[in-house]
């Protein structure tokens, strides 16, 4: 059943599992085993436990080496954004793991194959299986290709609520008035619009942001303001 997945992993990432049973275990849900008493394998939960630890450690090591001038707070901030489980669901889909999960019939009918919470667990189980089968060096090489390379693409920003983070930072010493003011709305090609927004605290402008919606522009402004304040805080 996993032949096509093996071919895809080999051609795209130069990965070939020596122990295919580990790969099967990473993709097997408990309900499938309950409905197939003759099935000899295990469900993914133990591998998920291992994969979670491997992800945390691998990401921490990568960031530690990549950003030698960053302090603990900056490293933690990015690590948290990267190992949020919502990003794991997206990575599972990128590998097409969702297509190969062994599900119980009821779970299949309920749409579990596309459920983010399951795909997040499956990603961690897959990493746990890869670690046991290939070792840490292969895991790191794989993560550099599929996960760490996305840092420069801004992939992880979508999983960070910068407006909430900015609010928490600004209100550490007491209540403040935070405003998002739309400055402009400019036409783009294909009938799109570009919105420009500035974020203010107590009538002081902190940053400007732009995006194809007011919400996106506000998030960009909050991100710039938050990162600027974080940098200032770490410099002091």
From TrEMBL:
Q: Which family does it belong to?
A: Belongs to the ribonuclease III family.
This protein's source sits in the domain of life called Bacteria
Which positions are catalytic residues?
52, 124
Q: Name one GO molecular function term.
A: metal ion binding
Task: Give the main localization category.
Answer: cytoplasm
Give me the gene this protein comes from. Answer: rnc
Q: Does the keyword Cell inner membrane apply?
A: no
InterPro entries in the cross-refs:
dsRBD_dom (IPR014720), RNase_III (IPR011907), RNase_III_dom (IPR000999), RNase_III_sf (IPR036389)
According to its UniProt entry, the function of this protein is described as: Digests double-stranded RNA. Involved in the processing of primary rRNA transcript to yield the immediate precursors to the large and small rRNAs (23S and 16S). Processes some mRNAs, and tRNAs when they are encoded in the rRNA operon. Processes pre-crRNA and tracrRNA of type II CRISPR loci if present in the organism.
Give an example GO biological process.
Answer: mRNA processing
Residues annotated as domain RNase III: 6-135
GO CC, one annotated term: cytoplasm
State what protein this is by name.
Ribonuclease 3
Organism annotation: Weissella halotolerans DSM 20190
Q: How does it assemble?
A: Homodimer.
Please list the cofactors this protein needs.
Mg(2+)
């Amino acid at each position: 059943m996993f032949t096509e997945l093996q071919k895809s992993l080999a051609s795209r990432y130069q990965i070939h599992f020596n122990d295919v049973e580990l790969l099967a275990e990473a993709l097997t849900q408990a309900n499938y085993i309950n409905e197939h008493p003759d099935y000899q394998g295990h469900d993914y939960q133990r591998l998920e436990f291992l994969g979670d630890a491997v992800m945390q450690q691998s990401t921490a090591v990568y960031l530690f080496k990549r950003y030698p001038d960053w302090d603990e707070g900056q490293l933690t901030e990015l690590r948290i954004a990267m190992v949020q489980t919502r990003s794991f669901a997206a990575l599972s889909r990128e590998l097409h793991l969702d297509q190969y999960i062994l599900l119980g019939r009821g779970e299949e009918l309920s749409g579990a194959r596309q459920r983010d919470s399951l795909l997040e667990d499956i990603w961690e189980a897959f990493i746990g299986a890869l670690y046991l089968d290939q070792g840490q060096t292969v895991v790191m090489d794989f993560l550099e290709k599929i996960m760490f390379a996305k840092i420069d693409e801004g992939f992880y920003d979508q999983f960070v609520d910068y407006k909430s983070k900015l609010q928490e930072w600004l209100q550490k010493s007491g209540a403040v008035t935070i405003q998002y003011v739309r400055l402009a709305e400019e036409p783009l090609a294909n009938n799109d619009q570009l919105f420009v927004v500035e974020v203010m605290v107590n009538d002081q402008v902190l940053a400007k942001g732009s995006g194809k919606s007011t919400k996106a522009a506000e998030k960009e402004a909050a991100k710039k303001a938050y990162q600027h304040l974080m940098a200032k805080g770490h410099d002091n």
